[in-house]
Amino acid sequence: MSVADIAIDCRQPWLIARFSGPRRMLSWSPNRPGFSLADTVAWLEVTNADVVDLTDPAAYLRARLAAAGLERAVGLMTARDVRRHHLTRSTVDGIGAVALVTAGLTNGERIGERCHDPALPAVAGTINALVHVSVPLTRAAFLEAMSLAVQARTVAVAEAGIRRGGAVVTGTGTDCLVVAAPSGPDPAIHAGLHTAIGEAVGAAVLSATRAAVAGWVADQTGTAP
């Protein structure tokens, strides 16, 4: 599967997004957090047997990536079936954004109010999202785009009205987002809500996260096709 210059390869336990060339990325990925340069983002699907008693998730992920020949990838981990991924594209005034999202909410949390429900599942769900912007960004614009991706993720989750410990969750304790953009001259210096970049990023992430959350709910309730 491909959209524009991103190619998606899904073969459990891996979901791999490859770009046509290196991209600047910003994330809090376990293995390559902060700003990085990479052409691949790789999701690793894990099971309870994989992570029980795991004390260093970042080291575990690095080892699995290396074994798969993905040492330079920005890595993400999820207990969600990686086949249940959702890819959405948005274009605003010639600016394109592509979002790839997987979502599980079994360890959902509400912002500012940690859940103390002891029934935390052994394998935690998580929301992992990659959004690629078609134009270069300054470091400040990367941060703005990241804030809008998080905002869009949160809106999609809150809309679903899923409760844990009595509170409507706004995310999970293990979410991770990646913003990617090409390198190049004259990078955009703004990516806020008033900009085409911000609108495209928000629309793509919102749509893909809504679909991913709805798919997770359907799987939990047995209503998935």
From TrEMBL:
Pfam families: CbiZ. InterPro entries: AdoCbi_amidolase (IPR002808), CbiZ (IPR052209). This is Adenosylcobinamide amidohydrolase. It comes from Prosthecodimorpha hirschii.
